[in-house]
Amino acid sequence: MRLSSQSRFNLFIFIVFGLLMTYAGCGGRDLMGDTKTFFERLFGPKTPRTAYRKTMLKEGWATDLEVEVWDAAYEVAKSTPLMVGLPHREAVSLDSQLTLSAQSFRLRLPAGRTLEINARGSGPLFGELFRFKGGEPNSRPAEYFPEGGGPITYETPWLHGEDLLFVLQIPIGEPVDYELQLTTRPVLLFPVDGKDERAIQSFWGAPRDGGRRKHEGNDIFAPKGTNLLATTDGEITRLNNTGIGGKTVWLYDRERGLRYYYAHLDQQLVRKGQRVQKGEIVGTVGNTGNARTTPPHLHFGIYDNGAIDPFPFLQSADELPAVSPLSLSGPAAAMNVPTRGNHYLRFTPARDGEVIRQLENGEAVTGLAVTGRFYRVKTERGEVGYVNFD
């Protein structure tokens, strides 16, 4: 039987939908990301970098050999990242050498933090953020700089944190100066109006009842009656008044699958089943329950299958490190290791960072970037790492 055009179209949509559901599987929170990747795989370039590469070849703006060397630099960088902590700030100056066009950084993102990556420069930049699977970076980026530039933001779904890989590349034949900035901010709004983590006076893990148990939350001190805020959009699932927690409110965060516990309230200003938005008032600070002999405060807890340390979820946004006092003489600057002292090439810009090797006194290196008191250099052997010449 011959199908009509409309029937063939409907069949196509049905097949695509079925493939999409199979591909997405039971990913839950990752469904939208998986959906994006599915359609990108089906219908075209995945990132501005791949679109740029395709245009380079199609329009003849670069030779096949130049694109091949540019691709190789990207793959080498992706497989040999340096390690950086958060927050991180690095000033980079590169010339048009294709072999120096890409850099990569491995980092650890804690749970409860949103990563933000910015690279402000004199020209276009291609930035791609990869998750790991089985110890190796995924073939496709989880996030990337949008066309025209702009930050990457990413929140890990894992409560134990996550290792990530960020790869940055400049266009073919275009020298670029840029500053790379990697910072984090809390995923939650601070729950006590007008306060921040400086108001926390009792932390996760502090002993309780003579050491028989440990504190499963943060105690945030504020005057009685201070407004308590919904840390995110969610649903009020429980209101209690008990001898331990006093007046309590439970807020369920469907997006993250977490429950937030507000205890010792003076007033509960929500009802069970109520949907609240981030920043909405849910109650006021008090000292009910077993806090009746202490100054007013909020006991704030986070629960999944068990209690989780709330502090990373609440700590203020990172402050960027100071601008490095060091500088390079120019793009991909020629440098020499000092003739005196011991100088070590390291995987990370820290004096106790893992050593790649000891550099020879007077050895020639190429300066690529500066961060803090460290240069990022490439040796004539092809090694890339951080070195301090103090």
Main beta sheet, described?
10 strands, antiparallel
Considering DSSP H and I runs of 4 or more, what fraction of the residues is helical?
A: 10-25%
Low-confidence stretches: 23-37
- Briefly note the CATH topology name of the largest domain: Jelly Rolls
What's the rounded overall pLDDT mean? 89
Q: Mind telling me which CATH architecture of the largest domain this is? A: Sandwich
For this structure, what is the CATH class of the largest domain? Mainly Beta
How many helices does DSSP assign?
Answer: 5
Structural class by helix and strand composition: alpha+beta
Number of extended strands:
28
How many structural domains in the coordinates? 3
Question: What best-fitting shape do the alpha-carbon axes yield?
Answer: elongated
Task: Tell me the Rg in angstroms.
Answer: 26 Å
Strand content: 35-45%
Q: Alpha-carbon distance between the termini? A: 81 Å
Explain what this protein looks like in three dimensions.
This is M23 family metallopeptidase. InterPro entries: Cell_wall_metabolism_enzyme (IPR050570), Dup_hybrid_motif (IPR011055), M23ase_b-sheet_dom (IPR016047), SH3-like_bac-type (IPR003646). GO terms for molecular function: metalloendopeptidase activity. Pfam families: Peptidase_M23, SH3_3. Helices cover about 15% and strands about 40% of the residues. With about 400 residues, the protein is α+β, with helices and mostly antiparallel strands. It has 3 domains: about 160 residues, Jelly Rolls (Sandwich); about 120 residues, Glucose Permease (Domain IIA), CATH 2.70.70; about 55 residues, Roll (SH3 type barrels), CATH 2.30.30.40. The strands form 5 sheets. Strands 11, 14, 15, 16, 17, 18, 19, 20, 21 and 22 form a 10-stranded antiparallel beta sheet that branches. Strands 2, 4, 8, 10, 23, 26, 27 and 28 form an 8-stranded antiparallel beta sheet that branches. Strands 1, 3, 5, 6, 7 and 9 form a 6-stranded mixed beta sheet that branches. Strand 12 and strand 13 form a beta hairpin. About 5% of the residues have low confidence.
